[in-house]
Design a protein that fits this description.
Length: 442
């Protein structure tokens, strides 16, 4: 029986499925990981020169027999270039680089050091070439890796590839031919993987493990267009790029830094997930869903604060970072560590209308650290009565108003609703008061 499949967004290509720079102190209290978003795929790209290692995870939920992934790749893939990864590697990388919430506690303004208010607010031998002459499709290799049956093929024209896929039980949605044809013109091959049910059952996994592919090519890109066909709405893609040169950005779409460093109302501590989703939705809206967002860029030799423990040399090696030291030194906060790795985390919400091209990347060489970071500042509540304490308390209301405005601007929420949640009343500025309100002001 043929599988009733259509293309949906998954990682590098698609799956065919049924129907700021400164250092700071503070306490890390919450993170915004990928679990906050539905239909969220993840790709880890390790890049050094023309050498690339991809780790691709997907959020597929359903019968494993219906899962097939089709990935355009720029070169022939040997059996030894394919590996199956542990999902925990990506989960760790996600937690390490996720936007985070930190909190500070104001010190007693009557005891030094006094914190200024402005600071507070601001393989060829296995190649099995068999020509499907009637379709123009060449099956270049077949492998079984882990729980996946994998086919590497090339095609002469899109109609032949479509026919081959249909003859092998896959229904291709309308519009796929043009996209497939563009990859064929670029002389790209197609990596097709589906689940080997017998092996999947023997291994005993209740989820599909990430697939890894290593290859050499001057092309530094991520094909996403196939994944937009018949997709049920916009999709989330998280890209973690590990290299040695520094921050990576897209060349054919704007790469925008996520708003960062704002002080927020204290009640956000219990609602950080809701805040982050609302904030990201608002930023996507402001950019007309046409930008790729930078969430994290950091030298992995240190972090401040760390949202999760740094990845070990073995974990980095398992992700394909082949240049890491096998005997790393202990990581010391604020010091030069043993890992010569720079991480860039990008987050994109995309569909066919707003992202008609695949993502193309470049290494900028910029090693400036950046992270999506949001701050809670707990006020001092002591009863000391020095002059500095009086000034401090007079400024607290202004600070809370700035926090309310920051939250409203980031999320699009009604500022009066935010003020109510904060239990503050708006005070009129002097120029906004009636004349009699200004006569006996304190």
């Amino acid at each position: 029986m043929r599988l009733n499949l259509f293309l949906t967004a998954v990682l590098l290509g698609t799956a065919l499925l049924p129907e700021s720079a400164s250092s700071f102190c503070g306490f890390y209290v919450a993170k915004a990981d990928t679990k906050l978003f539905n239909k969220a795929s993840q790709v880890v790209i390790v890049r050094d020169g023309d050498k690339t290692a991809l780790t691709m995870a997907n959020d597929y939920k359903g019968d494993p027999k219906e899962f097939v992934i089709v990935i355009p790749v720029p070169t022939f893939i040997e059996r030894e270039q394919i590996h199956i990864a542990n999902k925990a590697l990506i989960d760790h990388l996600d937690a390490y680089s996720a936007p985070r919430l930190v909190e500070y506690f104001d010190e007693n303004p009557c005891s030094p050091p006094i914190m200024a208010y402005k600071e507070m607010s601001a393989p060829a031998s296995d190649r099995a070439q068999s020509e499907e002459k009637s379709f123009g499709v060449t099956i270049e290799a077949k492998y079984m890796v882990g729980e996946y049956d994998i086919v590497i093929l090339s095609a002469k024209y899109s109609e032949g590839l479509e026919t081959w896929l249909k003859e092998n039980g896959y229904r291709i949605p309308e519009g796929a031919g043009d996209i497939l044809g563009s990859y064929i013109k670029q002389k790209m091959r197609f990596f097709i993987a589906k689940v080997n049910l017998k092996e999947h059952s023997r291994l005993g996994f209740n989820y599909l493990r990430p697939i890894q592919v290593a290859y050499e090519s001057p092309k530094f890109m991520l094909p996403i267009r196939l994944g937009t066909i018949n997709a049920n709405g916009p999709q989330e893609l998280f890209i973690y790029i590990l290299n040695r040169k520094g921050r990576v950005e897209t060349t054919n779409y704007r790469t925008v830094k996520l708003p960062s460093g704002m002080d927020l109302p204290l009640y956000i501590k219990g609602e950080f997930a809701d805040f982050y989703r609302a904030m990201f939705n608002e930023q996507v809206k402001k950019e007309n869903m046409g930008a790729v967002f930078l969430e994290y860029a950091w030298d992995m030799s240190w972090c401040d604060p760390c949202a999760a423990d740094p990845l070990s040399a073995k974990e980095l090696g398992d992700l394909g970072v082949f240049w890491v030291n096998d005997n790393p030194q202990p990581l010391l906060p604020g010091s030069a560590g043993a890992q010569d790795v720079f991480i860039t985390r990008l987050h994109v919400r995309y569909d066919a209308e707003h992202f008609p091209e695949d993502l193309v990347f470049q290494e900028t060489g910029d090693r400036t650290n950046f992270q999506g970071r949001y701050v809670l500042r707990h006020p001092w509540t002591g009863d000391d009565r020095c002059g500095a304490a009086k000034i401090y308390k007079r400024h607290l209301h202004e600070r809370r108003e700035e926090e309310a405005r920051a939250l409203a601007n980031l999320t699009g929420r009604n500022i009066n609703d935010i003020r109510k949640r904060m239990k503050i009343e708006r005070r009129l500025k002097k120029d906004d008061r009636e004349w009699w309100q200004r006569i006996w002001e304190e």
